[in-house]
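[job 4471] stage=fold_predict status=RUNNING
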Amino acid sequence: MADIRIATADDARGVFDLLAARSRAAFGISELSWETFSDEFRREGTDRWVAGDGDVTGYAHLGSEHGFVCAAVDDAVGDALLAAAEERARERGFDKLELTAVPEDAPLWSLAERSGFEHTHDVLRMWRFLNGELPESRWADATAIRTYTDSDSERVHALLDASYSEWDENYVPLEHDAWVAFMTDHSEFDPAMWFLVERDGELVACALHWKEHQKRGWVKDIVVQESERGRGIAKALLHHGFREYAARGADRVGLKVDSTNPTGAPQLYERVGFEIDRRYAVWVKPL
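[job 4471] inference complete, writing structure tokens
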């Protein structure tokens, strides 16, 4: 049995190096930045474990949304980290664990296959290059767009929860304070890139983007109230975001979308120029 212990702040660099090495092994390059990792590593509400007394030979964390992340140098360490996460998940009243993996990450994929996880669906990563003339936004009648302020947090959170819970049986809503911390307490948050659409003062849609980084923008969330769908609001929000990112020097915009999303989002993204470059498998294990 591998020696598993609670992670501390002193483990941060070792954990980062382990995760970066895993990313390089899977994709040829590390897709992890120290700044982004540091923001996540100090986030409250997440349980973290490491293996190894000197060099970190394994790492796992369990978030409030039931997400399980794991990297390990061998199967025994991975199994021990999963056992620790399962025990803690039951203590927290969770009914399942969820992990995301790609076949190129052979150790994590193997852990999912041998440990009772079910591959339920895929998440698609897509990119839209900001080349050529960018289309202007065409807004539905009587709608107004503005940027986010702190006083909007409860309405934005409620709109996202309502939209995702409507179709995603694996969606886990967060407590409001935890959601605010998760979405805003890090270096990628920029309220000037959170766009809200209102009709008669009611919030009917939003597009929440991360700050432009290395000439790349990222759409974190885009949702439209069910009664407002079919009026071109999501398309207008995307076009608005393209122009805002281009003005900041970005040359592309990315996002992830659930392959089973029934709202037509994957098809919309393709129509406005996004192309799939990677598929992530989502695995779920009931507890």
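[job 4471] summary: Residues 4-116 form a domain with the Aminopeptidase fold (CATH 3.40.630.30).
[job 4471] exit 0
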